UniProtKB/TrEMBL annotation:
GO biological process: one example: base-excision repair
Segments of this protein annotated with the region Disordered: 1-44
Similarity comment text for this entry: Belongs to the DNA polymerase type-X family.
Cofactors that this protein relies on: Mg(2+)
Record carries keyword Coiled coil: no
Annotated Low complexity bias: 20-40
Organism: Crypthecodinium cohnii
Descriptive protein name: DNA polymerase
InterPro entries for this protein: DNA-dir_DNA_pol_X, DNA_pol_B_palm_palm, DNA_pol_lambd_fingers_domain, DNA_pol_lamdba_lyase_dom_sf, DNA_Pol_thumb_sf, DNA_pol_X, DNA_pol_X_beta-like, HHH_MUS81
Short name of any one Pfam family annotated for the protein: DNA_pol_B_thumb
DNA-directed DNA polymerase X domain: residues covered: 48-369
PANTHER family: DNA POLYMERASE BETA, DNA POLYMERASE TYPE-X FAMILY MEMBER
Biased composition (Gly residues): 1-19
Domain of life assignment: Eukaryota
Length: 369
């Protein structure tokens, strides 16, 4: 779905005074040639109004999830997704009401944001003590909305409170949550691109030395060229691992061998989850001063590999747009392939470029996604 539902992911950016969002939506004059838009300089982009609206609704959706209000969370998420992929600039709530996912209530909120650049109810929710407590507790890997709500009900409202309760024996955490709490502050810090290149070099060196038959790609925002990342997403396969040769990965042989190598090298520090196709864990570069980082490794069949790299590279908005295009063509696109519903027919694609071509879409390099 569009966005990963993180509260505080930039909702309310570009609040450059009353009417800033409306000016952006109506198409402000472009910046001079060669100018670099400053953070929050939304007026430089005529579609910035759409993105501001999507950011605000995405944050509202995340907060509703924290409050366990699934109905409202879904409504905000649907509105954010629709706005991110809408090809036209939204200049009013009345215009937006013609879009799927935008009802009368969302249309009213759109008018408010376009007029003021912000949403008052979001400003108030950001001050809500329960919301702040839920966000703090959910930053611990393995603690979801329900568990966080139970902890808040016990008046545990911060990581310090949680650590004290665990030490006193008043709260029991499972193994995954214990690791998540141990490294919570480190996981919350973004990974600079320079450090990501070091992770890439470490992974590539081990892959080339110990697993030359493994094909590997770091995906996510790193592959899109972003300045920093939240975690490390790795996709692996081998050319022999196909639908006709599933025994190549019998018992998760490929990923288990690969993870064993990373662990033996001292790169992997702790395991959060481990299956035959996916590993979730903690890694750290073997150099002084480096933090513990979250890493996910997925192993897919070779005939699914390019669909996987496309999906896990993102962006979320592009994934939604391509999936909707597939539906328009009577097909279904996922991280596993491009299929025709009701049949076993699969569209064979040997590269990401061929996936774009199959959908009739112009190819986008990762840094343009």
């Amino acid at each position: 779905g569009a966005g990963r539902g993180r509260a505080g992911k930039g909702g309310g950016r570009g609040g450059g005074g009353k009417g800033a969002a409306k000016a952006a939506a109506k198409g402000a004059a472009p910046a001079p040639a060669g100018a670099v838009a400053a953070p929050g300089d939304e007026a430089a982009d005529p579609k910035a109004g759409n993105q501001l609206l999507a950011d605000i609704f995405e944050e509202m959706g995340a907060i509703m999830k924290l409050k366990r209000d699934r109905f409202r969370a879904r409504a905000y998420d649907n509105a954010a997704a629709a706005l991110r992929i809408h090809p036209e600039v939204i200049a009013s709530g009345a215009q937006a009401k013609h879009m799927d996912g935008i009802g009368a209530g969302m249309a009213r909120r759109i008018d408010v944001v376009l007029e003021t650049g912000e949403l008052e109810e979001l400003k108030e929710l950001r001050k809500d003590h329960d919301v702040l407590a839920l966000r703090a507790l959910r930053s611990v890997h393995g603690i979801g909305a329900v568990r966080a709500g139970e902890l808040v009900a016990k008046d545990i409202r911060s990581l310090a409170d949680l650590r004290a309760a665990v030490a006193a024996g008043n709260v029991r955490l499972d193994a995954t949550q214990t690791i998540g709490l141990r490294y919570a502050e480190e996981f919350a810090k973004r990974i600079p691109r320079a450090e990501m290149f070091e992770h890439q070099a470490t992974l590539q060196a081990l892959q080339q030395d110990k697993h030359p038959n493994v094909i590997m790609q770091i995906c996510g925002s790193f592959r899109r060229g972003k300045a920093d990342c939240g975690d490390i997403d790795v996709l692996i396969t081998t050319k022999k691992f196909t639908a006709d040769n599933l025994k190549e990965n019998a018992g998760g042989a490929i990923i288990r061998s690969f993870v064993h190598t990373l662990r033996e090298a001292g790169y992997l520090i702790a395991d959060l989850a481990f299956g035959n196709s996916k590993y979730m864990g903690v890694c750290r570069l073997n150099k002084e001063g480096y933090l513990h980082r979250r890493i996910d490794i997925r192993c897919v069949r070779y005939d699914q590999y390019h669909f996987g790299t496309l999906y896990f590279t993102g962006s979320a908005a592009l994934s939604v747009r391509l999936r909707m295009k597939a539906i328009d063509l009577g097909m279904r696109l996922s991280e596993y392939g491009l299929t025709c519903p009701g049949t076993d027919d699969r569209v064979l694609c040997n590269s990401e470029r061929e996936i774009f071509e199959a959908l009739g879409e112009p190819y986008l390099e990762p840094h343009d996604r």
